[in-house]
Write a sequence for this structure.
């Protein structure tokens, strides 16, 4: 029987070879069998081993000469999904019984365990043999430990990546759903792919019966809000679909800074989503951000109104305090016999002036910061402007016994391009600062030109500014060397140089501390563009 | 007929400052406490010069200015806006509506206001 099957096996093997007969028939069979990368054995219908090749021997750790004629079922256990198979369920039994080819791959999760050796996963092909009345089966199998491992590691990676992706998606969804900016993703036909509750609340609220507070409830998640739903109420205000398509078409974002919609003021931003596919930029859709800026705008407007009201309400009573005190001094001086009375009236007048200046400084800062000051572009000679500014404040210098003069220089073109009135303000501010901080000597102004700019320097012989305090000079509410509690309130609000800087910068010029030495004095310089004609 | 200075101003304290300032001059001072009263007095008296406040209850100074400058009989009377609004937009608006000049009340002492007013009154003969 065994001998017959050996012949059969040889015949089977003969199917693999199509070579010229260099070797004797038997040599060739053996050579092929031992060169095979797969394990191969042949059993007869009683499951007795007829033949086993070198690879099979190597893999199972059995000894070829000792297994021939043995019942293979006692030598090797077969597992399916880690369950040992009873004899009748073994694949080869099935093949012997049915005469059909059996094939098992990685997915079939088949493994074998030789009598004395470790279990390992296999792929196998079992082919029935039938020669004459004799039946048998050829089993070709391969150790697929490596494939299985790499499959498992790929599966693990896929699992981890999927998990990461799901988590990422969850984070993204949570972010999109909780931000208080309306967020919409569309495809490149302007159909909505994703829309967050805030966007629904702003754009689809009127098509639902939701209470105002429902925004944070889960109800809003169920509101249907397609592009068609949005268009029902929004299209007459803003044609969102057309704008999205135009943004996609032009590959450019679109922004509307302020859009009035019902009682809301909206800020809208549309940007195309561009991907690089090969060398080509492809637009796959758009992102739409819809922000409700109503509250901000209301606050901004009430701030404007506040300053306008403050300007009026504070200055009106101050007008009558100042006016009455001034008139007492100017017209009724002869009727006031008591010197103390006269001093008191003068104090009231000066305090009211100071208060008006403070209010004016606050208003100026507010207007400058809001860009509400309109600057003229005038071409004018700066010398008369400087002289006017000197005249405005020379009384203060005179009272302290200080000199105040414009150095007479060689005549050159002293025409600049700026706003005349604002320039005078800056000059007057620099001079009155210099007077405030100078006790002896005086203040001299000088002019130079350089690279298309006219430089005006104001040099005093005052107390000077320490180096560590110099960089704070042009900031808001700064007085050199003063903390909040030690500030000298008779020297102003600390807004003067801040205002001067903003004015100069708005006119295309600049202002800076050119030099200063403690105990010797300071030089402040500003530059303005020279007039071109 | 003598020269008349009409002041349209709602704040009683400020009114009294101007009353003291312009009393005893060679022109008559008339005061109106609201925009409407100011327009009525302007029509009746044909003043030489009008000093006009902006923020007033009822009808504001800009509205008064608009009516004055559309009235054939009144449009040639110079108007000096004397207010405590000092922002560029208000100044521009007043000038574009036909105001001759614009002064921020708190920034001018009575003597300076008087000089400016008298220069106008002298010019108008």
């Amino acid at each position: 029987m065994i001998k017959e099957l050996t012949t059969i096996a040889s015949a089977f093997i003969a199917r693999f070879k199509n070579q010229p007969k260099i070797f004797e028939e038997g040599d060739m069979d053996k050579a092929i069998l031992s060169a095979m990368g797969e394990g191969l054995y042949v059993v007869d219908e009683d499951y007795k081993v007829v033949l086993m090749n070198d690879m099979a021997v190597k893999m199972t750790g059995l000894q070829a000469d000792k297994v021939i004629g043995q019942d293979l079922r006692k030598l090797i256990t077969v597992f399916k999904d880690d369950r040992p198979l009873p004899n009748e369920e073994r694949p080869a039994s099935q093949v012997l019984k049915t005469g059909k080819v059996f094939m098992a791959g990685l997915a079939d999760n088949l493994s074998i365990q030789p009598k004395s050796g470790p279990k390992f996963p296999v792929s196998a092909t079992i082919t029935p043999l039938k020669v004459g009345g004799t039946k048998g089966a050829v089993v070709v199998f391969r150790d697929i430990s490596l494939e299985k491992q790499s499959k498992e590691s790929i599966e693990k990676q896929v699992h981890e990546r999927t998990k990461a992706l799901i988590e990422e998606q969850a984070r993204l969804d949570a972010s999109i759903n909780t931000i208080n900016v309306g967020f919409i993703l569309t495809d490149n036909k302007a159909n909505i792919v994703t829309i967050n509750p805030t966007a629904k609340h702003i754009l689809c609220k009127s098509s639902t019966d939701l209470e105002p507070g429902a925004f944070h409830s889960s109800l809003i998640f169920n509101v249907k809000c397609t592009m068609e739903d949005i268009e029902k109420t929004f299209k007459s205000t803003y044609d969102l679909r057309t704008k999205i398509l135009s943004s996609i078409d032009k590959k450019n974002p679109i922004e509307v800074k302020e859009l009035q919609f019902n009682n809301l003021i909206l800020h809208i931003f549309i940007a195309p989503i561009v991907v690089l596919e090969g060398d080509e930029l492809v637009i796959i859709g758009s992102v739409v951000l819809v922000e409700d800026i109503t509250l901000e705008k209301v606050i901004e407007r009430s701030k404007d109104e506040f300053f306008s009201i403050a300007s009026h309400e504070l200055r009106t009573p101050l007008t009558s305090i100042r006016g009455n005190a001034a008139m007492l001094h100017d017209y009724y001086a002869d009727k006031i016999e008591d010197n103390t009375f006269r001093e008191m009236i003068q104090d009231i007048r000066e305090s009211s002036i100071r208060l008006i200046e403070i209010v004016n400084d606050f208003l100026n800062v507010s207007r400058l910061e809001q860009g509400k000051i309109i600057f003229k572009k005038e071409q004018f000679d700066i010398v008369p402007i400087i002289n006017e500014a000197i005249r405005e404040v020379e009384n203060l210098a005179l009272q302290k016994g200080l000199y105040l003069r414009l150095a007479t220089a060689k005549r050159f073109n002293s025409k600049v391009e700026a706003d005349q009135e604002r320039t005078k303000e800056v000059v007057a501010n620099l001079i009155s600062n210099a007077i405030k901080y100078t006790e002896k000597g005086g203040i001299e102004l000088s002019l130079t030109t350089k690279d298309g700019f006219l430089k005006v320097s104001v040099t005093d012989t005052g107390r000077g500014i320490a180096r560590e305090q110099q960089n704070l000079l042009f900031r808001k509410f700064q007085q050199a060397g003063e903390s909040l509690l030690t500030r000298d309130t008779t020297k102003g609000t600390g807004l003067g140089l801040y205002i001067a800087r903003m004015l100069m910068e708005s006119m295309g010029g600049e202002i800076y501390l050119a030099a200063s030495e403690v105990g010797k004095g300071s030089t402040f310089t500003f530059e303005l563009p020279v007039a071109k004609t | 007929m003598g020269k008349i200075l009409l002041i349209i101003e709602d704040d009683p304290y400020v009114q009294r400052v101007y009353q003291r300032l312009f009393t005893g001059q060679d022109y008559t001072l008339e005061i109106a406490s609201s925009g409407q009263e100011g327009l009525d007095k302007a029509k009746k008296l044909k003043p030489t010069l009008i000093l006009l406040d902006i923020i007033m209850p009822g009808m504001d100074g800009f509205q008064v200015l608009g009516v004055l400058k559309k009235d054939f009989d009144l449009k040639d009377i110079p108007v000096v806006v004397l207010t405590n609004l000092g922002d560029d937009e208000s100044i521009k608006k007043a000038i574009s509506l036909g105001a001759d000049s614009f002064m921020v009340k708190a920034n001018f002492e009575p003597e300076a206001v008087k000089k400016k007013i008298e220069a106008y009154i002298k010019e108008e003969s």
In short: Chain A touches chain B through 23 residues (CB under 8 Å). The mean pLDDT of chain A is 85.
